[in-house]
């Protein structure tokens, strides 16, 4: 991948979430000048409390949004 110019990371279902969570790691594998796009295709998770009564999915997505809303360092 040392000569790649464009790279796409995608996934569906749980793989869609993984593609978003690991986009920065994926970008680190290619040259700085490469264009990298990551997207989730067809993911769905029920927003309900888990068996212990905790809002696991809600807390998890809060962390996803927080991670991708913070400014990146250049």
TrEMBL record:
<keyword id="KW-0964">Secreted</keyword>
<dbReference type="GO" id="GO:0052793">
    <property type="term" value="F:pectin acetylesterase activity"/>
</dbReference>
<keyword id="KW-0378">Hydrolase</keyword>
<dbReference type="GO" id="GO:0009505">
    <property type="term" value="C:plant-type cell wall"/>
</dbReference>
<keyword id="KW-0961">Cell wall biogenesis/degradation</keyword>
<comment type="function">
    <text>Hydrolyzes acetyl esters in homogalacturonan regions of pectin. In type I primary cell wall, galacturonic acid residues of pectin can be acetylated at the O-2 and O-3 positions. Decreasing the degree of acetylation of pectin gels in vitro alters their physical properties.</text>
</comment>
<keyword id="KW-0134">Cell wall</keyword>
<comment type="similarity">
    <text>Belongs to the pectinacetylesterase family.</text>
</comment>
<dbReference type="InterPro" id="IPR004963">
    <property type="entry name" value="PAE/NOTUM"/>
</dbReference>
<dbReference type="GO" id="GO:0071555">
    <property type="term" value="P:cell wall organization"/>
</dbReference>
<protein>
    <recommendedName>
        <fullName>Pectin acetylesterase</fullName>
        <ecNumber>3.1.1.-</ecNumber>
    </recommendedName>
</protein>
<dbReference type="Pfam" id="PF03283">
    <property type="entry name" value="PAE"/>
</dbReference>
């Amino acid at each position: 991948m040392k000569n790649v110019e464009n790279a796409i990371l995608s996934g569906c279902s749980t793989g869609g979430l993984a593609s978003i969570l690991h986009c920065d790691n994926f970008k680190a594998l290619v040259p700085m000048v490469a264009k990298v796009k990551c997207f989730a295709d067809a993911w769905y998770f029920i927003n309900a409390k888990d068996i212990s009564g905790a809002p696991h999915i809600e807390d998890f997505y809060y962390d996803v949004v927080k991670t991708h809303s913070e400014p990146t360092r250049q």
